[in-house]
Amino acid sequence: MASRLRLPPLNSLRVFHAVVRHRSLREAAEELFVSPQAVGQQVRLLEEALGVVLMEREGRGIRLTEKAITLSHYISAGFDEFEEGIRRVSGPPERALINLNVSPYFGTRYLMPRLAEFRTAVPDAEIGLTTMIELVDLERDQIDLAVQWGYGDRSDTLSTLLLRDPKVICCRPDMAAQISSPADLMKFNLLHPARSRRLWPDILEYLGVTTGALDRTITFDDAATMRRATYQGLGIGLISRLDATEDIAAGKLAAPLGEDALLGMPEGAVPGFYLITTKTRLRAKHVAALHRWLAEQSW
């Protein structure tokens, strides 16, 4: 049998893990309740044990070498495994708790109508359901699964597309009367979602409108606020198709370029609702079961 690789001291790996997360010796020291000098010493011990350079001074900060970045992925996964194992053996023996966070719009529009069915997906587990507009940190916020709006481009999680969220360009009917071509959109303020800097630029590029930097003086955290701002004539809004269809039928809003003006956009340019988690969390059978139920639904 081949001899096992001799691992560096666990403490030096723990310190390195903290430094990588903070990109700072001082902040890592604060987390670990030691001095920055002690942190630096542990990093040097790790470098000596491995025979590689992991960090280089860069002004008052530090720069991770390519080998440090590679190593950090494996160490992060390792500590995730430690945490999950400890949580499983030391947690309460009663019903498993799954912490699920969803964006408010997805929760209201899509999940709530299926709440009874959703609850039966994991009958033996307790589900803690929260809503959060801002980007969740699964570790910090202690979330097992999250449904978030965006493009599925987070590198730190596993992302599964649940459904796309195509937008309709909308405004008040009196403003729509002044718009006969895509270029006319630039006569008005464009209302931007705070969670995406690319949505309007992608749309204007698709429509063939050439423009410079867009004014992002006012952005909106959630779909409901942008919808209200569009009602009030603050500018041209990007409204989710279900809402747009309702508002146009009620005469509250109009789609000056037509409700189907953006249907041909490339899929990668259309945001959606993504189910995010990590491999470690999916090892818990109840979390895996709920993840499977959410992913298999025809939203």
Automatic annotation (TrEMBL):
Keywords: DNA-binding, Transcription, Transcription regulation. It comes from the Bacteria. GO terms for biological process: DNA-templated transcription. Residues 8-65 form the HTH lysR-type domain. It holds the Pfam family LysR_substrate. GO terms for molecular function: DNA-binding transcription factor activity; sequence-specific DNA binding. The keyword Transcription regulation applies. Belongs to the LysR transcriptional regulatory family. This is LysR family transcriptional regulator. It comes from Fuscibacter oryzae.
